[in-house]
Design goal:
The complex is a heterotrimer of chains A (324), B (441) and C (247).
Chain A: E1 3-8, E2 10-11, E3 14-15, H1 17-33, E4 36-43, H2 50-54, E5 60-65, H3 74-88, E6 92-96, H4 99-112, E7 115-120, E8 122-126, E9 129-136, E10 141-148, E11 152-156, E12 171-174, E13 187-193, E14 206-210, H5 217-230, E15 233-236, H6 238-242, E16 263-267, H7 273-276, E17 284-289, E18 302-305, H8 308-323
Parallel strand pairs in A: 1-4, 1-6, 4-5, 5-12, 6-11, 7-11, 14-15, 14-16, 16-17, 17-18
Antiparallel strand pairs in A: 2-3, 8-9, 9-10
Chain B: E1 5-10, H1 14-25, E2 30-33, E3 48-50, H2 53-57, E4 69-81, E5 86-92, E6 103-106, H3 108-124, E7 133-135, E8 142-146, E9 149-155, E10 158-167, H4 174-178, E11 191-200, H5 203-209, E12 216-224, E13 232-238, E14 242-250, H6 251-256, H7 261-270, H8 272-278, E15 282-292, E16 304-305, E17 308-310, E18 319-320, E19 325-326, H9 328-348, H10 353-365, H11 367-374, H12 376-382, H13 385-403, H14 413-424, H15 427-440
Parallel strand pairs in B: 1-2, 1-10, 2-7, 4-12, 10-17
Antiparallel strand pairs in B: 3-6, 4-5, 4-6, 8-9, 9-10, 11-14, 11-15, 12-13, 13-14, 16-17, 18-19
Chain C: E1 8-11, E2 14-17, H1 26-42, E3 47-52, H2 57-66, E4 70-75, H3 84-95, E5 102-106, H4 117-124, E6 129-139, E7 142-148, E8 152-158, E9 162-166, H5 178-184, E10 189-193, H6 201-204, E11 208-215, E12 223-226, H7 229-242
Parallel strand pairs in C: 3-4, 4-10, 5-9, 6-9
Antiparallel strand pairs in C: 1-2, 6-7, 7-8
Classes of the chains: A alpha/beta (324), B alpha+beta (441), C alpha/beta (247).
The structure holds flavin-adenine dinucleotide (2 copies) and adenosine monophosphate (AMP).
One flavin-adenine dinucleotide is lined by residues 10-16, 33-36, 42-50, 139-140, 168-171, 175, 194, 196, 246, 248, 289, 291, 312-314, 318, 325-329, 331 of chain B.
Chain lengths: 324, 441, 247
């Protein structure tokens, strides 16, 4: 029986929802094809996540626990993933497409001589491999890609699949891991964390994104207020992460994060293709822009043509009223 | 000055590239500077390139499988419009199927870039393969003048020197003004704005709809209702699998009548004739560009001065007398003639007006200046209210009666015509128009 | 890579780029820029390597015009159906017996967004590496790279030789000036055939294959609300609640 394995990413001590989305999908693929649906978690406290994982249908959870996994580092992660692949021998190994995944996916494929398709919007099994749809050309169009190999790695954009609980009592398989200092190819000197208690954009139900139209502290304050009223994450266009107005980890788009919340409010963002590439899959898009010809209106469900400094205060007030 | 060029060409549009090609073929050491990211990236034409000069620059250009052009014109149409009707003069001839073609439709971003590639090939084959350049993404800020003679150009901090400069910067001719060949201020009523959409079809649909055969194509110009009362005209040209549909509109008139070009274009697209022509197409590109009215009153004082030649639309070389817009062919020919003059100047080692005035002479002897002078009145005539509104309405009114078949006695067509004239104009006005037209056409 | 801004269309599952133009990947432009900055600060030489058809030479020329010292053009016909893994194998074969301190790559290709080649090359060559770099310094002969991770930025120290994939957030690549463009013409471009790199052609056969292209499920432009700011703001807020049901 073949195995479909899902990598469960942990970030800031939490299960990444996007990897559970992937697991949910793999579960349905496994059920349909008679494959075994398994998961692997690699973390300093890996075993503590087993409960959360088995809810989504993994029949086996492979656990690699070692203090070295407290922070992301590619050398140990790669070693662990290779070891897991060696012992599980999955026909398909699926990942959520996070920065952590992107850091090792190619190297893992090269190391394991596996075929790999990165950053897909959906995938399914075909005879002898995997078939996937990927956004290409700055997400203007899609392509269909097939990977034919007995080992296929695939990474999936967040928000591509719904979470789907199907509790299993999973068998837990601990995989030994140790790593010598001498094996470390690089050292992690320091982590500069994003300021404050920001909501993870990949997981956020709602996102308020600021662009160059947000010019000053007053504008930032309006963004923060709107986000807090909506319990939304704050994102930004490159114009504002580049100039240091917002933390770089908040950048949404081709270079930054790809998000797909229920509600995306683009404030003072023109809608360059590279930005739209990262948010076009949001369920409902609202754009506030003073330029009626801004391209962002081509993707927005609700376009408000106006000055954000005049639009946001009554907008926030009205939402407060609705919420209360 | 080891790095000195024989010539620096400013602008990589049709005019600049034609000059560059001629320079390369004549083994000249030159530099062409284009501010766009690549040649053609910002250029807009309708665009039919009329005449056969392209064959001079790139002999047998049609043999190349995927050359820079889209279709050759063998079908021409001039359409008068009123609100509901259109009345066309339509001419199609297999005579136009012969090579070299006398008109090819081009999309500038593709055509200019292709032509630049051909120029590069010519450079590579010349004695100055390593010393002549096409440089893009660089804007010339200034022509360096010494004792009122051009000696080079400036871009940012960098200066480059040459015996001569060909200004091929197009209609926004800031450098032409800087060197004093044109007044700093050109009144808006001599400027038009051109806007166009590229509308894509399934190629088969396009070919069937416009009766295209192989690479044959159609050009269609429009007068009357098309422009919603703004002075100007419309055009529709067939490309490989798209059409170029657009308008050329007087800037001053737009301003006075408070209309936006884009709204006028939408108005045009609503005409039943156009709506039928573009049905099922998808707009894939929209662009706008200023274009000269081709009025000789705004021509530069002269086309040359010491060390400088002026070519293409930088010199307002353009003809827009209703049946076609001619700008690219003028640009091409003037570029060729200017470069030939530089070659002569190098032979004589004299780049002053004494030699460069030969360019003016060549231009005067060419069809360009002959046409510009000869059809000047036609240009003025076209821009009158009579031609813009009354004539198209009248023609369509007549057409409606002439082509209607009712179950009642048919009036003589002469009577129909007189009726139409009375409704839209007067005999006296038309007689005046006819007189003017005879003189100017 | 093809210019992602250029008009494109899909006909019977095939992607057709109207203008057959090649451009320098923005992320690679950042890698070149960073290399030039390193050279300006610490000396050394910047060499660019590109696998591509003959018309890719224009793109190579651009990197030379920015200031790279020399280039290698590994010739491909352009008809091969290579994927990131194939390119990584060719690049690794090329680098195998070369001397270098840092291999800089783009974090991904703008057209495909694959983001695989960099770490593949590092793995084939057993190099220390990091991806998605947004900043870079040299300290005591080691590279200290700031990489954008999922939630924060990681400062990673790498011994040389190593590989780094660069984000365009790293810098603003310089636009070649005229002097640079002119100088680039005299810089050497070494042309290399893939067959001379000692790789088995069969090994380059891609495991992944693009079978077709299709339009994205179209996102219809919704409604635009223009008018008095206060009014439209309240109207849309109401609609988000009653119509879109997302509050
Ligand atoms: C390879 C590459 C990758 C890229 N990746 C990304 C990416 O991941 N994410 C990203 O965002 N960008 C990315 N970009 C950059 C992208 O092309 C744009 O430059 C960027 O998105 C522009 O940000 P903006 O919309 O905030 O700014 P602008 O384009 O300057 O737009 C500002 C908008 O605000 C409006 N505005 C101004 N004042 C007001 C006001 N008072 N009220 C209302 N509206 C106002 C203006 O009308 C305008 O539309 C990338 C570019 C490249 C080349
Ligand atoms: C809508 C429209 C429809 C038209 N239809 C037709 C038609 O059907 N047939 C026809 O023959 N003509 C047509 N024309 C006119 C035709 O486009 C122009 O006459 C022609 O492009 C002129 O060529 P040119 O080379 O002189 O100038 P351009 O094509 O304008 O080229 C000038 C070049 O110089 C560059 N440049 C400018 N300043 C600088 C600087 N400082 N430094 C470096 N580079 C610089 C520009 O980027 C540009 O590439 C049309 C025009 C418009 C707008
Ligand atoms: N043909 C190629 N020639 C040189 N470098 C390449 C080539 N293809 C990919 N790369 C490098 O790999 C990066 C992108 O990887 P990927 O997204 O996997 O295509 C690019 O930014 C380049 O640095």
């Amino acid at each position: 029986m073949s195995t479909i394995l899902t990598y469960i990413a942990i970030s800031d001590g939490k299960l990444k929802r996007s990897s559970l989305e992937v697991l949910s999908h793999c579960k349905s693929l496994a059920d349909a094809s008679g494959a075994s649906c398994e998961a692997v978690v690699i973390d300093a406290k890996a075993s503590s996540f087993v409960d959360g994982i088995q809810k989504y249908g993994a029949s086996k959870v492979h656990v690699v626990e070692d203090p070295i996994f407290k922070n992301h580092m590619n050398t140990p992660l790669l070693k662990a993933l290779s070891k897991v692949m060696g012992s599980v021998n999955p026909s398909v190994f699926a990942f959520a497409s996070t920065e952590g995944t992107k850091d090792v996916l190619g190297a893992l494929a090269a190391n394991q001589n596996a075929a790999v398709i990165a950053d897909v919007a959906s995938f399914e099994l075909i005879d002898g491999g995997v078939k996937a749809k990927r956004p290409v050309m700055a997400a203007k169009i899609m392509n269909n890609t097939e990977a034919k190999s007995d080992k296929v790695l695939v990474s999936v954009r967040s928000g591509s699949y719904d979470l789907n609980e199907s509790p299993e009592s999973a068998e837990v398989v601990n995989i030994d891991f140790s790593m010598d200092d001498s094996e470390m190819k690089s050292t992690l000197r320091e982590i500069i964390s994003a300021s404050g208690d920001t909501i993870d954009l990949n997981e956020a139900e709602a996102i308020v994104a600021a662009g160059r139209g947000v010019k000053d502290e007053e504008g930032k304050a309006l963004i923060s207020e709107l986000a807090s009223v909506l319990k939304a994450g704050i994102g930004a266009s490159r114009a504002l992460t580049e100039s240091g107005v917002y933390d770089p980890s908040l950048q949404i788009g081709q270079t930054g994060k790809v998000v797909s919340p229920q509600l995306y409010i683009a404030v003072g963002i023109s809608g360059a293709i590279q930005h739209v590439a990262g948010m076009a899959n949001s369920k409902v898009i609202v754009a506030i822009n003073k330029d009626p010809d801004a391209p962002i209106f081509e993707v927005a469900d609700y376009g408000i043509v106006g000055d954000l400094y005049k639009v946001l205060p009554p907008f926030i007030e009205e939402i407060k009223k609705i919420k209360s | 000055m080891e790095d000195k060029f024989d010539c620096i060409v400013i602008g990589g549009g049709v005019a600049g590239l034609a000059a560059a090609m001629t320079l390369a073929r004549n083994n000249m050491k030159f530099l062409l500077i284009e501010k766009g990211e690549f040649p053609g990236s910002k250029n807009v034409s309708g665009g039919v390139l009329w005449g056969s000069d392209l064959n001079k620059l790139v002999p047998n250009y049609w043999e190349e499988e995927d050359g820079g052009w889209d279709r050759f014109i063998n079908h021409r149409r001039l359409t008068f419009m009123d609100e509901q009707s259109s009345f066309s003069l339509d001419f199609k001839s297999s005579h136009f199927n012969e090579k070299p073609y006398t008109g090819v439709v081009v999309l500038r971003s593709k055509f200019d870039n292709w032509l630049a590639g051909k120029v590069q090939e010519a450079i590579d084959a010349s004695d100055f393969a390593m010393d002549s350049f096409i440089a893009t993404d660089i804007k010339v800020d200034e022509v360096i003048m010494e004792n009122d003679k051009a000696v080079g150009i400036k871009t940012g901090e960098d200066e480059f020197f040459a015996d001569s400069v060909i200004i091929a910067e197009g209609v926004n001719n800031l450098l032409t003004r800087q060197v004093g060949l044109q007044d700093k201020y050109v009144p808006a009523d001599h400027m038009l704005t051109g806007i166009k959409e590229i509308i894509r079809f399934d190629q088969k649909v396009l070919e069937d709809r416009f009766q295209l055969n192989g690479l044959s194509g159609m050009s269609n110009e429009f007068v009357g209702w098309a422009t919603n009362g703004i002075e100007g005209g419309g055009f529709l040209y067939t490309n490989r699998d798209t059409i170029s549909l657009g308008l050329v509109l007087g800037l001053k008139d737009l301003r006075e009548k408070k209309q936006k070009p884009y709204d006028v274009l939408n108005h045009f697209k609503q005409h039943p004739t156009i709506a039928d022509a573009i049905k099922g197409g998808e707009v894939v590109e929209y662009s706008a560009h200023v274009v000269s009215s081709g009025d000789s009153r705004v021509m530069p004082k002269e086309l040359y001065k010491d060390g400088i030649l002026l070519v293409g639309e930088a010199a307002n070389l353009l003809m827009n007398a209703g049946k076609a817009i001619q700008g690219m062919d003028y640009a091409m020919r003037s570029g060729i003639l200017a470069a030939e003059t530089i070659v002569e100047a190098k032979a004589k080692n004299d780049y002053t007006s004494a030699t460069l005035k030969e360019y003016r002479k060549k231009m005067d002897d060419s069809y360009i200046m002959k046409d510009i002078k000869g059809f000047q009145d036609a240009v003025h005539l076209l821009h009158t209210d009579v031609m813009q509104n009354k004539v198209p309405n009248l023609v369509c009114d007549f057409g409606r009666q002439f082509f209607s078949i009712k179950n009642e006695p048919t009036p003589k067509s002469e009577k129909m015509l007189l009726g139409a004239i009375k409704r839209h104009s007067s005999l006296w006005e038309l007689a005046k128009l006819g007189f003017k037209a005879r003189k100017s056409l | 890579m093809p210019d992602v801004y250029a008009p494109l269309q899909i006909k019977e599952g095939e992607l057709i780029m109207d203008a057959d133009r090649m451009v320098l990947n923005a992320y690679d432009a950042s890698a070149v820029e960073e290399a030039l900055v390193l050279k300006e600060k610490h000396g050394g030489e910047v060499e660019v390597v590109c696998i591509g058809p003959s018309k890719a030479s224009e793109t190579i020329r651009k990197a030379l015009a920015m200031g790279a010292d020399k280039a290698t053009h590994i010739l491909a016909s352009g008809d091969e159906e290579y994927d990131s893994a194939s390119y990584a194998k060719i690049l690794s074969a090329f680098f195998k017996d070369k001397e270098y301190d840092v291999i800089g790559l783009g974090k991904q290709s703008q057209d495909t967004d694959s983001g695989l080649t960099g770490s593949m090359v590092a793995e084939h060559l057993s190099l220390p590496y990091t991806t998605n770099a947004v900043g870079l310094e040299v300290e005591n002969g080691n590279l200290v790279v700031k990489r954008q991770g999922d939630s924060g930025q990681e400062m990673i120290e790498l011994p040389t030789p190593c590989a780094v994939t660069c984000s365009n957030d790293m810098n603003d690549p310089r636009i070649p000036n005229l002097k640079g463009i002119m100088a680039s013409k005299r810089k050497p471009i070494d042309q290399v055939e893939i067959s001379s790199l000692g790789i088995d052609e069969a090994e380059l056969q891609a495991d992944t294959k693009v079978t077709s292209y299709e339009e994205k499920p179209a996102r219809q432009a919704g409604k635009k609300y223009e008018g008095e700011a206060e009014e439209v703001a309240r109207e849309v807020a109401q609609l988000l609640d009653t119509e879109a049901n997302v509050l």
